[in-house]
Structure formats: C-alpha cells, structure tokens
C-alpha cells in the first residue's frame, strides 16, 4: 500500500537547523513530484518547497528562500528538507506530498506530518 512517512521534526532554538525526511513506498517514487507543505495553528496549509520528479527543478516559498533546501534521492525513495536559520514563525506541522498527473488523472499522496517547533 502507499505510504508517505515524515520524520525529523522536533524542538529547535531560533537560528538552529533541522533536516526533515520523507520516505515513500507503494508507488513509483521517481515519477512523482514531491513537495513540503506546512500548517501553523489557525492558518491554512501552505506550500514550502517542491522538487520535480527528476530533481532537476525546485521552487520555494518566498518566506524560506535562502534558508531551506529541498532535495531527493530517487534510489532511496526519500525527499529531504534542510532547514537553516530557523525562526519562530517556521513553527508548524510539516507535511510531505507526492503528486503526478497521468493523462486526465491526478494522483496525490500525503503523509501524517511532523511537528517543528522553533522556540527558545
């Protein structure tokens, strides 16, 4: 069955770093674009970063540009989010998403999320 499992969240001080991992199984990982989203309390879920199926292109939300880096290892069916210079406003549940179009059909798989808390 399809599984998307995030890990690596936790409590970190402002200015610190964390690396999130997202391990996928049950589908052809290398055919899917991968994204990281986040949702803070009382706010809508927002796109943080995405990476093409080949890893050849990436996009970032303006709020994380220059601080976060998304990458993927198709041999390990895993996508990463390296987060540096963390700010309290980065506090949120971070979700991993895999998606692709196949003709007119859209496929999307979500993980359960991992909590990131930035606080002194």
Q: How many individual helices?
A: 0
Termini separation comes to: 40 Å
Strand-and-helix sequence, N→C? EEEEEEEEEEE
The general outline is: globular
Radius of gyration: 14 Å
The class by helix and strand makeup works out as mainly beta
Percent of residues in helices comes to under 10%
**Main beta sheet strand tally, sense and closure:** 7 strands, mixed
- Overall mean pLDDT stands at 97
Low-confidence stretches: none
The quaternary state of the protein chains shown equals single chain
> How many E strands?
11
- Which range does the strand content fall in? over 45%
Mind explaining what this structure looks like?
The protein has 120 residues and is mainly β. The chain is 0% helix and 55% strand. β5 and β6 form a beta hairpin. The radius of gyration is 14 Å and the shape is globular. The mean pLDDT is 97.
Label this structure with key terms:
mainly beta; 7-stranded mixed β-sheet; 120 residues; 4-stranded antiparallel β-sheet; 55% strand
List the helices and strands and how they pair.
Layout: E1 3-7, E2 10-12, E3 18-25, E4 33-39, E5 46-51, E6 58-60, E7 68-73, E8 78-83, E9 92-102, E10 105-110, E11 114-118
């Amino acid at each position: 069955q399809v599984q998307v499992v995030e890990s690596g969240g936790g409590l970190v001080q402002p200015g610190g770093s964390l690396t999130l991992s997202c391990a996928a199984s049950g589908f052809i990982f290398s055919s899917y674009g991968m994204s990281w989203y986040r949702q803070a309390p009382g706010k809508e879920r927002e796109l943080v970063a995405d990476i093409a199926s080949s890893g050849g292109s990436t996009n970032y939300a303006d709020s994380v540009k220059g601080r976060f880096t998304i990458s993927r290892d198709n041999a390990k069916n895993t996508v990463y989010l390296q987060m540096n210079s963390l700010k309290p406003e980065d506090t949120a549940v971070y979700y991993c998403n895999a998606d692709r179009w196949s003709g007119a059909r859209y496929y999307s798989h979500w993980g359960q999320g991992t909590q990131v808390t930035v606080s002194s």
